[in-house]
Amino acid sequence: MSEIVNILLQALLLIAGFVLLVKGADVFVDGAAAVAKKFGIPELVIGLTIVAFGTSAPEAAVSITAAFKGNADISVGNILGSNIMNVLVILGIATIITPLVVANSTVKVELPFMIGISVLFPVLGFDGKISRLDGGILWVAFIAYLVYLFKMTKDNPDAEADEKELLSVWKAIIFILLGMLMIVFGSRFVVSSASDLARIFGMSERFIGLTIVAFGTSLPELVTSVIAAKKGSADIAIGNIVGSNIFNILFVLGTSSLIIPIGFADKFLFDAVFAIGSAVLLWLCSFKDKKLHRASGVLMLVCYVGYFVYTLYRD
Q1: How many domains does one find in the chain?
Q2: Which ranges in 156-212 belong to alpha helices (H)?
Q3: Does a structural domain hold residue 2?
Q4: CB crowding 71-96: b at 16 or more within 10 Å, else e
Q5: Per the domain annotation, does 176 fall within a domain?
Q6: Of 84, 119, 246, 263, whose CB has the highest number of CB atoms within 10 Å?
C-alpha cells in the first residue's frame, strides 16, 4: 500500500514539474526575446547564451552534485544523454511542429564547433577519467567561445524594435529570472520523481543517467525551443540547443572535473560516438538550404528511438 502511495506522490510531483517547466519556459522566452530586441542583440546570441545557460542549469546542478557524490555514471551519462536528446528529440519535435531556418553562422561556425568539442569529450576521457587538467582545457575553450559570441554581438547588432511593442527592461529581466526559477524547480521535481519511479521499477543508475535524468534535465530545452519555434523565434530555438550542448560539455563537465576528477567508463564510448553522430546529422540536415525540414525532424526522432531501444537492451 505504501509503495502505491509513493508511486502516486511521485506521479503528482512529475505533473507539477511539467506545469512549472511549460509556464516557466514561456515567460523565459518572452523576457529573453525582449532583451535581445531592446538592446539590438541578435536573437541567435541570446539563444546561444542566456537561454542556453538558463535551460542548462539543471544539467549543471545534477552533474556537479553527482561529481561531488562520486556518481560518475550519472554525471557523464547526464551530459551525454542530454546532448543526444537535445538534438534528436528536442529539435526533432520543434522541427516537426514548424520548419526552422538555420542562421548562416550556425551552419558555418557554431555547429562545427559543437561537433569538435563533442569529439574532444571522449578523447579527453579515453584514459578513463576527465582530470582537472582536462577541465582546464574545457574552460579555455569555453572562454574562447564566449569571446566569439561577444564579437558576434559587436559585428551583427539587431535593429531596435518598436519600444511600444516591447516589455520594459526591468520587466524583461524579471521575466527571465522568474522563468529560470520555474524551469530549475520544475526540472528538480521532474528529475527527482522520474528517478524515484525508475528505481521503483528496477532500472539501473546508468540507464537513469542516460535517459530518465537526461530527459528531465533536457525538459527546459524542449519546452523553451518548442515555444520559441511556435512564436517564430527560430534563432532562439536552435541557438538554445547548440548553446546548451556546448555549455554542457565546456562549462558543466569542465567545472565538475575541476572540482573533482570524473571517471569515464569504457561503456560510455558508444554513447559519446552517438552524440558526435547526432551533432553531425544536425549539421548535414541544415547544411544544404540552411533550414531544418519536417522530414529531418522525423529522421531525428527515429534515430533516437533506435538509440533508446539499444540502450534499454544493452543495459
Answers
A1: 1
A2: 169-200, 205-207
A3: no
A4: bbbbbbbbbbbbbbbbbbbbbbbbbb
A5: no
A6: 84
> Nearest-5° angle of CA 286, CA 292, CA 294?
140
Four-residue CA torsion sign, 22, 188, 47, 223:
negative
> In this predicted model, what pLDDT tens digit does every residue of 25-55 receive, in sequence order?
778 777 877 777 777 777 667 766 766 766 6
Cell digits for 193? 520523481
Question: What type of residue is 270?
Answer: F
CA-wise closest residue to 252 among 50, 118, 63, 58: 63
Task: Read off the pLDDT of residues 187-205 as tens digits, 9 standing for 90 and up.
Answer: 677 767 777 777 787 776 6
Q: CA 149 to CA 297: how far, in whole Å?
A: 27
CATH of the domain at 54: 1.20.1420.30
Radius of gyration of the chain (CA): 19
The residue assigned the cell 540552411 is: 290
pTM: 0.75
- CB atoms closer than 10 angstroms to residue 234: 24
- Is 19 domain-assigned? no
Cell 554525471: give the residue.
75
Question: Which structural domain range is residue 285 located in?
Answer: 47-158+190-314
Give the separation between CA 89 and CA 26, rounded to whole angstroms. Answer: 19
Residue in the structure block whose three cell numbers are 500500500: 1
